[in-house]
Amino acid sequence: MKRETQNILLILLGGALLKITVNGDYLRYVKPAQQPWIIAGGAVMVALGAVAIVRDLLSARAAAAVPGEIHEHNARSAWLLMVPVLAVFLVAPPALGADSVTRTEARAPQSAAASNAAAFPPLPAGDVVPLEVNEFVSRAGWDSSGSLNGRTVRLSGFVVHNEGNTMLARMVIGCCAADAFPITVRMVGEGVSGFGNDTWLEVTGTVVPGTAVRENSYMPDLTLTSVRQVPAPKDPYEY
Prior knowledge:
single chain; alpha/beta; CATH 2.40.50.140; 2 domains; 5-stranded mixed β-barrel; 5 helices; DUF1980_C
């Protein structure tokens, strides 16, 4: 690969990293805490590429002043190498969704929070308690105090249809999308079967006690009281 191509690729890659941090697309790859490192990496790549290009231009100008040192290169073919870079780094892929959930075979236990029964802190006061799906599943499966029983909760996630069940799901990541794993809740009630896979919903309901067990990979049932379609969030993952 020619030096000119290397330098341009560095600037393109660095610029792409800076772009996805500005428009928020980096959240499809990593957790928010990684943003400063992406910005730093992109800035360094752009700076290195710019410095190398300036240095090469100065060298070429000096060489042009010396007879017999002028070389012409046909760099048109090198531009073809930019196409996959632009396609991969400038076109953001969709977030992991229903297909990732159904293709994940080993999902027990669902939550990394605990594997043994424990007493969780009481839920806050209020008629409807907003919770992350990960916390809801953790409490349903391992809260020995039964803090969810009789409480109405609000969850948001995307729809997954699998083996006759209609589930509300979220992908949980520890560092980046490569280590993502699904958390699912089986929705019980009318009005959800008509929504297609990957449709984002905000639902309220109450847990069916005792439904999150090892045999169903600790997937609790949620008896629905309301269902509302919502836009996909900018940050689709839980942590």
